[in-house]
Amino acid sequence: MLEAPRIGDLPSGALDSMADVAGVRVGHCTLAQGAVQTGVTVIRTHAQDPFLHKTPAGLAVINGFGKSAGLVQLQELGVLESPIALTNTFAVGTIATALTRAAVAANPEIGRQLPTVNPLVLECNDGYLNDLQAFAVAEAHYAQAYAACSPDFAQGAVGAGRGMSCFGLKGGIGSASRIASTRAGRFTLGALVLANFGRPDALILAGKCIGPVLAQRLQAGPPVAERGSIIMLLATDAPLDARQLRRLALRAGAGLARTGSDFGHGSGDIALAFSTAYTVPQLDAGPLHPQALLHESALDPLFAAAAQATEQAIVRALFAAETVLGHGGHVRTAIKDIAPDWRALMSHEVSTRICTV
User: Fold this and answer.
1) What is the domain-level CATH number for residue 214?
2) Staple 35 to which of 4, 60, 224, 327, CB 3.0 to 4.6 Å?
């Protein structure tokens, strides 16, 4: 992986990834053959059965141009009851079925004596590099990604990120972490993004506008409307409820904006935050034990961590990616191949210009 510029002033966890939040694991299944350039990425929020031990979560739809599954119930109830799966647009139904089958296998009374499960699948459109009409993603690929879940996971053009584009370059999966110090203690926040958005001329790298130079090198032509999408996932060990987590998720948008996105009409920008500090039981065994939550006035350091970790994760998705040749002969070039001189570009006079975002 090409070394990426570091974002912000907050310290990172040991791995500088979402897996710095204890219990969180990530796995990929990558499909990379000819016109098929796609895959599945799975995030496990803890080691227990997610249906029986739900994870508190909050959702922020920054721009709702997307075809995900499970968001309505998540927004209403404020909990996750399945792993989080990322994939391409046409595979949402297949992966939702795979999540449902896995939940039923673990809990055979789902849909009978137990409630139905709400599988969460989030997507981006990888149709520039991947032949969506091949419908290449199968249920077995979810199982492979789930089985691969680990604290040590790849980034870049892997899993769901295999066919994704970002600022006209190769995008994909990126992750980072930041440590937030509050009056109540130190908490870890990890971000993971599926980056598939942005105009080439708009890229801002660590505060420096290198987009115009990249657009020239890519021969991108006149600026076009922003299309694509990004999924931004935040994990934290801070004790927050669903309402506070929704507020935290919204701050991922600050990190997104700092890279040069203006959340254009055709861009689906969705952020989700979850806490590993406690779980919510599926079964009614009486009143829930009260959970001591952070006071609202203690959230600012976590908001800053969310913005910095999200921006860093997007940058890492770019710098971890490789150049990919895909469907129809389309190519997305990795930033390491088109701008190995990125440090010089950041000190060049063009980087002092104001980017149009």
Assistant:
1) 3.60.70.12
2) 327
